[in-house]
């Protein structure tokens, strides 16, 4: 795994530094294979360094007048909490189910039971730090809808490539992100890195 900078990206320099982007051969939570992976642990290591980007995201989301933000554990949850504080609104989170199924987009995210009644009827924006295939945000949208929330948009600090962007658009939801970077995701059967025999790293 090699840390890289991201030439040609519109990710702000300070945010690139916090994200620790890496290139290699990664199996995403969605089941896709990717050449780019971004760590989230360093992103939240120093919250004051992240704050300018939280403020920018809050500025993008505020005109939609959400009642709450919801983020999938763990990066999305941390981002949702910080951004909701900035916006003065409620914050929810979802937890990844312990045992995902097989195939593409196998993962489900669940609201903790004591939040079920609190999300009902709320206008919620689902946020995640980095959206690649969109697995965690889409599963979170489904879970919120199942408990009576109205999901009105998806927000992110970074979108990687088009796969997740298109998947969110297919739900009829706007996706508001402060930056983006090109990336190509592959179905396992079509992955050129697999065909070259490059070792695969799980990043679930
Ligand atoms: Zn592959």
Task: Describe this protein's structure.
This protein is an alpha/beta fold and 204 residues long. The protein contains seven helices and twelve strands. Strands 4, 5, 6, 7, 8, 9 and 10 form a seven-stranded mixed beta sheet that branches. Strands 1, 2, 3, 11 and 12 form a five-stranded mixed beta sheet that branches. The mean pLDDT is 92. It binds zinc ion. Residues 25, 33, 191, 193-194, 200 line the site of zinc ion (ZN). Zinc ion binds at residues 25, 33, 191, 193-194, 200.
Quick recap of the structure?
By secondary structure, the chain is of the alpha/beta class. The chain contains 7 helices and 12 strands. The strands form 2 sheets. Strands 4, 5, 6, 7, 8, 9 and 10 form a 7-stranded mixed β-sheet that branches. Strands 1, 2, 3, 11 and 12 form a 5-stranded mixed β-sheet that branches.
